[in-house]
């Protein structure tokens, strides 16, 4: 029983320790690009596979469309 409690505590500590490290460099850092994921410097994060800007779907709306990102999306869809 004590062994399970210790394991649970250690797992909880590990999760709390790792989570901030995973999210530290990405997120809505500034309002330069609302609705889009930004890096720690406030630059747009782009998909490595498609090169398109990464939207934060819960926040993004057509009114927030970034011209640079949406022009690239239209060009890729036109092919």
Explain what this protein looks like in three dimensions.
It is a single chain. The protein has 79 residues and is mainly alpha-helical. It contains two helices and two strands, in the order αββα. It has helices at 2-23, 67-78, and strands at residues 26-27, 38-39. It has a two-stranded antiparallel ribbon. The radius of gyration is 19 Å and the shape is elongated. The mean pLDDT is 74.
Features:
two-stranded antiparallel sheet; 79 residues; mainly alpha
Output the strand order for the largest sheet. 1-2
Residue fraction in strands: 5-15%
Described by its quaternary structure, the protein is single chain
Main sheet makeup: 2 strands, antiparallel
Categorize the overall geometry: elongated
Helix content: 40-55%
Give the termini distance in whole angstroms: 61 Å
Total of DSSP H or I helical runs spanning 4+ residues: 2
Poorly predicted runs of 5 or more residues: none
Estimate the mean pLDDT confidence.
Answer: 74
- Our Rg estimate from Cα atoms comes to 19 Å
**Structural classification:** mainly alpha
Beta strand count: 2
Order of helices and strands: HEEH
